[in-house]
Design a protein that fits this description.
The complex is a heterodimer of chains A (424) and B (406). Chain A has one domain (2-423): Porin. In chain A, 6% of the residues lie in helices and 51% in strands. Chain A has helices spanning 2-15, 26-29, 170-175, and strands at residues 53-54, 60-75, 78-98, 101-110, 124-137, 140-148, 181-193, 196-205, 241-250, 254-264, 269-270, 273-274, 280-291, 297-307, 320-337, 340-355, 371-384, 387-398, 411-423. Chain A has a 16-stranded antiparallel beta barrel with strand order 2-3-4-5-6-7-8-9-10-13-14-15-16-17-18-19. In chain A, strands 11-12 form a two-stranded antiparallel sheet. Chain B is mainly alpha-helical and 406 residues long. Chain B has one domain. Chain B has a two-stranded antiparallel ribbon. In chain B, strands 2-4 form a two-stranded antiparallel ribbon. The chains are: A mainly beta (424), B mainly alpha (406). Chains A and B meet through α1 and β19 of A and α1 and β3 of B.
């Protein structure tokens, strides 16, 4: 009954505003005609491509965003009822120290049980990003501090108000670590000519640890490493994690990103004595986004993970994972709605797939399952590009490693969510 | 203007459809005939305890929460997906006992091999000279009903075998109960103080508490107050470290025992289908029912829903000589190496759900179909197996349809 009432309310609100014209979040589209879009920007620019408020004549700018939502979800017919969730509150502080030297930090309260089950126990305040940028040349910039590893587009461009969905993509938040940041240093740069743009990033940072194959998820789970705060001061393996990304963009075609992250993840020596051999992980990621002439925005990202496992280790933990998502967002109205001159209504749908255990059982030679797919239609209302009210329906189907899809935590999950998110 | 009207009408139609279809957009409860789920009828307090046990049963352990160093799986649910039977990827290896005089390889880590080990530990191996076999985890649902069957009923089933013309000679597996276990309600000890055991492939586990404690220790390397030492590996010179505090406390362990005790029995699909009914008749006619007893009755149980209940497990809880083909030269308790406890057939048709669409039957999954499992029956089951071979195609198909309905 609760759901039907809310659906009716949402439908009335959204469909009552029919004098509007359509638009979509311009920072995702990056279409040059949007007045709040920074021309010639890439996903790598997202960290600075946010609305900031200048504090008088000081060199300091501040900003942030928040996300909150209601959801009603059932898995195999079982529900915990109506849930009201305050998932994120993020505060940015940026400063231009002097010409060609700038600093940005992001402090975030996060409590998103859908984003990273490892954090389901409660919210946390964390410094997610705090880095200094020194520009020597547009193609040579030094960045150092606590940085977000540029593995894939979502990790770089994850702010809630930019998306038409209350939940973040499963593969990009649970298979890849959500907003994965580490202490480290590196170079980045970009160059553009006519409609073409090229960007690169390369960083050396701290990395993962043994928890990625020894955790309470019972599967290879890269986000498990986030629970170690020591990663900001020491690397479990004593070796750097390499992260690199190449991006190319044509204003009329779209942006393609290819990224890699890899290195030794385990503690292989203690007090100088070798206690294990070095085990590596490698992550490959491809992302693409474009805007069709119909103003249809398509965003997709897929990642492959390869983890070197110890001998005699349970196949619950996989050496290979694969997953990604595709979003299709269609603006249907853009213009004046009520008293908002630049409002929009969008229809969207997200398709997702994650295979946590790619490969076959050594005991039988048959396929390991442990996968899920999800489809999520959505409708969103943006009174301004920086604020979104979004209504989603998710239909998800998951199997465990044996292929079983009948159970309290596997099988079919479906539900509704109504969320709001805004920059401020 | 016309465009807006069309859009408005479409939007309203979509809203109305969503409004009316809401209940269809959310998944309904699992039909018990589709899978194994849910508890028996219980009080609110029992439901809370069952829920805690459910959470523990499907909890995944890591090294920081006690897993290992040697283990088979990181949680109960990994071997018993949906409370069902296991998959060969979590098959376990037992070794070291070749007769009824006991296991001679306890110092080498017997009776169970730690199939896997945590990083940095030496992999375990079956010691030279030790016989071994492999077990796939059995179905969990309904085991509380099996525990509540009084010894008198088991003894009556054994007595009925004495003059069986097919040569069926099933008998209980008597053994000594652990010092920390208390006799079940209605237990009838033998003169030497040993009790009828009923769980496990060799019927060498006394009750669900012992089964659970063993599973924590041998399958996951989780210590308890009952078994406080981690399993050792004779190949690793480093002595196994015994944690000062049990890795599962008694409250949690008891909730797990309560959870498995109160699981509902598997539900037969299409029990009134004519082919299923015909197959049931064939099942009885060729003698399968002599060991795979269709109906048992529980005695007293402190859990009301388990007390004095008639149920259909398709087992007699006795051990039977299954012939040389199934003799792995390994045993437990006082069973012979060729003797196996009659496996309950309930949930048989649901096996492919948790075995990747395939079938891995018998104790080690060697049978890849129900027909093959029947054909591997020997010893006391040889006569019935011979009758199965002579069935007409119609009767054989009816029998298989019946078995898949369980």
């Amino acid at each position: 009954m609760m759901i039907r009432t809310l659906i009716a309310v949402v439908a009335a609100v959204l469909f009552g505003c029919l004098s509007a014209q359509a638009q979509i979040d311009s920072s995702l589209l990056k279409t040059p005609e949007k007045k709040d879009t920074i021309p010639h920007s890439l996903n790598m620019d997202a960290i600075y491509n946010r609305p900031f408020l200048q504090l008088g004549k000081t060199p300091v700018s501040i900003g942030g965003y928040m996300e909150s939502n209601w959801q009603y979800v059932k898995t195999s017919g079982i529900t915990v009822g109506n849930q009201f969730q305050f998932r994120r509150f993020s505060l940015f502080v940026a400063s231009t120290i002097t010409k060609h030297i700038k600093f940005l930090s992001e402090i975030e309260y996060e409590n998103d049980p859908t984003g990273d089950p490892g954090d389901a126990g409660g919210g946390s305040f964390e410094v997610e990003y705090a880095a200094l940028d020194i520009e020597f040349h547009p193609l040579i910039n030094l960045r150092g501090g606590m940085i977000v590893n540029p593995i894939g587009a979502f990790n770089q461009n994850h702010d809630g108000p930019k998306w038409e969905f209350t939940d973040r993509p499963i593969a990009m938040t649970q298979m890849l670590p959500d907003t994965w940041s580490n202490t480290g240093f590196g170079l980045y740069g970009k160059e553009y000519k006519n409609h073409w743009m090229f960007g690169y990033e390369f960083y050396l940072t701290g990395g993962f640890n043994d928890s990625i194959i020894d955790n309470t998820q019972g599967k290879t789970f890269l986000p498990a490493a986030k629970s170690s705060v020591n990663r900001f001061t020491e690397s479990a393996s004593g070796e750097p994690l390499y992260t690199g990304k190449l991006s190319v963009r044509h204003d009329k075609i779209g942006e393609l990103g290819l990224s890699y992250m890899g290195g030794v993840y385990n503690t292989w020596q203690i007090e100088g004595a070798q206690v294990d051999y070095k085990r590596r992980l490698s992550v490959y990621d491809v992302d693409f986004n474009t805007t069709l002439p119909t103003h249809t925005n398509i965003i997709t990202e897929w990642a492959w993970i390869f983890v070197h496992l110890p001998p005699n280790y349970t196949q619950e933990y996989s050496s290979r994972q694969f997953g990604g998502f595709i979003d299709v967002v269609q603006p249907v109205y853009r213009g004046r709605i009520l008293d908002w001159n630049n409002a929009s209504i969008n229809l969207a749908v997200r398709g997702e797939y994650v295979d946590w255990n790619v490969g076959t059982f050594s005991s039988t030679g048959t396929r390991m399952y442990n996968d899920l797919w999800s489809i999520m239609p959505a409708i969103s209302f943006r009174p301004t590009p920086q604020t979104v009210l979004r209504f989603n329906y998710r239909h998800e189907r998951a199997r465990d490693i044996t292929g079983d899809f009948i159970g309290a935590t596997i099988g079919t999950t479906a539900g509704f969510s109504l969320g709001l998110s805004t920059y401020f | 203007m016309r465009h807006k009207s069309i859009l408005a009408t479409s939007a309203i139609v979509v809203g109305i459809v969503a409004f009316t279809a809401c209940s269809k957009l959310l998944p309904s409860m699992i039909d018990p005939s589709e899978g194994l789920c849910g508890p028996v009828s219980m009080s609110s307090a029992q439901t809370i305890l069952f829920s805690a046990g459910n959470n523990e049963f499907f909890r995944v352990r890591s090294s920081s929460s006690g897993l290992g160093p040697y283990f088979v799986a990181s949680g109960c649910g990994n071997c018993h997906s949906s409370d069902n039977r296991g998959h060969p990827f979590t098959i376990l290896t037992r070794f070291g006992q070749s007769d009824t005089t006991g296991n001679k390889f306890l110092a080498e880590g017997a009776p169970q091999l730690g199939t896997f080990c945590l990083p940095g530990y030496t992999p375990e191996a079956v010691p030279p000279g030790a016989t071994s076999t492999q077990f796939i985890a059995p179905i969990t649902a309904g085991v509380g009903f099996l525990e509540a069957v009084p010894d008198s009923e088991i003894l009556n089933m054994a007595a009925a075998n004495l003059n069986n013309p097919d040569g069926v000679r099933g008998h209980p597996n008597y053994d000594t109960i652990p010092s920390w276990a208390t006799p079940l309600n209605g237990a009838i000890p033998r003169g030497d103080g040993k009790y009828i055991h009923r769980f496990g492939r060799k019927a060498d586990v006394y009750n669900l508490l012992e089964q659970t404690v063993n599973a924590y220790s041998r399958d996951m390397g989780i210590t308890s107050t009952y078994l406080p030492n981690n399993p050792s590996n004779y190949l690793d010179p480093t002595p196994s470290v015994t944690p000062s505090v049990p890795e599962v406390d008694n409250t949690t362990l008891n909730s797990t025992v309560f959870y498995v005790t109160c699981l509902q029995t598997p539900v037969q699909r299409n029990p009134n289908d004519p082919t299923v009914l015909a197959g049931n008749q064939v099942f009885v006619q060729i003698g399968c029912e002599t060991c795979h007893k269709q109906t048992l009755t529980t005695g007293y149980s402190p859990i009301a829903a388990l007390a004095n209940q008639t149920f259909n497990p398709f087992t007699d809880l006795l051990v039977h000589d299954m012939g040389p083909g199934l003799d792995d030269h390994y045993t437990e308790g006082t069973a012979q190496t060729s003797e196996w406890r009659t496996t309950p057939l309930w949930g048989l048709g649901l096996a492919p759900n948790v075995q990747g669409g395939n079938t891995y039957l018998l104790h080690d999954g060697r049978a890849h179909s129900i027909e093959q499992a029947i054909e591997l029956h020997g010893g006391e089951a040889a006569v019935s197996e011979g009758r199965f071979e002579k069935l007409s195609t119609t009767d054989r198909n009816a029998l298989l349809t019946f078995l898949k309905s369980l």
